[in-house]
Amino acid sequence: MVGKMKIKQYLIIFAIVVAVHLVFLLILRGGCTGRGSEESNTENVIEPVPDVVEDSSPSLDETQPSQAVSTQPLDPLAGVDPFSPQYFSKGLVPLPPNIQKLTENCKSGVVVDLDGRRILWEKDPNTPRQMASVTKIMTALVAIRKMRLSNGQITPETMIPVTRTASKIGGRQVWLDPREKFTFTEIMKCIMVHSANDCAYLMAEFMGNGDAESFVADMNAQAKELGCKNFTFVNSHGLAADDGRENMGSPIELAYLASVVLGVPEITKWTRVKVEYIRENDEEFKKRNKGLPTMLSSSNSLLGRCNGVNGLKTGFTNNAGFCIVITCERNSRRVAVVIMGSPKAKPRDELGIALVNWAYQTINK
User: Fold this and answer.
1) Does some domain include residue 281?
2) Residues 228-237 pLDDT 10s
3) Phi-psi region of 117 (alpha: psi -120 to 50; beta: other; left: phi over 0)
4) How large is the C-alpha radius of gyration of the chain?
5) What is the pTM for the complete model shown?
6) CATH number for the domain that contains residue 254
7) Closest CA to 260 of 220, 209, 312
8) Does some domain include residue 313?
9) Is 73 inside a domain boundary?
10) Cβ-count burial of 109 within 10 angstroms (0-12 exposed, 13-18 middle, 19+ buried)?
């Protein structure tokens, strides 16, 4: 009997021990499960927080690009000093006899050290003369300024539909077709590389909200805003108007305008280009053109021929003769040469090269 009692007591004690162990295990399991869930959340949420905190304080290198973009003025003319008779100082230097002889082949011109704002040579620099396609320097400047200040309504990728009126503009052209559309950048490329008159008119028409004459009025207003008094524009391309009038400008103000445009990369990226193309992806056009796109060739023969020359614009009409605005940079020193009223292109270019080389020899003395 006593033995049975002991066995019963042992069983009760064993049951209590087992029950206690089970309760302990359940508690332990519940605690582990809760900790496991917390660790999982810690992996997915808590651990990345230090990285996020670190990244929220960008390094100097990371902040520089945004600072550069935010501080760059939209207006390409922001901070530009207006022209005045005192803008360039006179530091005239006699030309060597051989170059002086070449200057007989032009009606007027000027050589300017742009960085020193110093006139090195001049020939009737203040008289307005017909400037033909040199006009397109102002056309491009006004178009780029309007694009930049349009609050994003016009961008370099904005499509410009060709109008019938633009397609009829003659002279040097890319044979625009009213069925075509080109981006703003493509039209600018045609203007500054190929000096395309049809594209210069189209740009004026588009940027003038359908009224090319309104854009020309903006060109004249821009000249006055810059302090230039010798510019007169009757169109955006430089051909003679139906009434015989032509765009006018003086050598010294063209040299000033060149210095302004050198600060506008949307223009200068094309003035240094000898050959470019459009209609590269127009398969229908290429079928009609022996499988080739339209080649744009610069009329500035000094590109690649005279060290450092990076622009800017040539021009010709019967009344204007052969004109050129040359910009050049050597060892971070910039020079502008303007030649107007040359009877032929070859002597104009020979004089241009001679004046550029002479300018740097003079500056470096």
Assistant:
1) yes
2) 999 999 999 9
3) left
4) 36
5) 0.80
6) 3.40.710.10
7) 312
8) yes
9) no
10) buried
